[in-house]
Amino acid sequence: MKLNDEGDTALHIAAAKKHVSFVHNLVQLISSSDLALKNDRGNTALTIASMSGVVKIAKLMVDKNPTLPNLLDPQNPQNPSPVFVAIAYKRRDMASFLLSKTNFYALHTSQQIELFIATISLDYYDIALKILKKKPELALERREENGDTALHVLARKPYGTIGSSSELRKTYLTDF
């Protein structure tokens, strides 16, 4: 049941307000298909949860309906998946969780590239490495927008962002 002018359900609102226990109770009461309901902007409650960054809320939803991270709107391809939203809102832990639950291969190659480059731009190298392990050829792919590759993005990083030379030397020397 929609509760406001934006078409939000009680679950959308509870996720936005970060009410873990309320979400827990709602998830127990509703069907897994109800978890996939979208508001008027085309967002599921999981998408709203991905904005909040509360991984426990997302986990409750995904445990009940594992297809949620993969619900893409063919009518509105500009509507991003929850993992993209987590990255856009700089929710590192949420992005890592959702990436593990997203069918990465179902994303269009341009979406995979954008996700990969966005993680590098935000210095989420652990997530970027997970993506690269899934599809190594993304290292050479170019963005449609400007032709950049991941290397272009890395090369524009300020000195010291990726690791200081003293850290690298310590790592190098301790390996021997």
TrEMBL record:
InterPro entries: Ankyrin_rpt (IPR002110), Ankyrin_rpt-contain_sf (IPR036770). It holds the Pfam family Ank_2. It comes from the Eukaryota. Gene3D superfamilies: Ankyrin repeat-containing domain (1.25.40.20). This is Ankyrin-3-like. It comes from Momordica charantia (Bitter gourd).
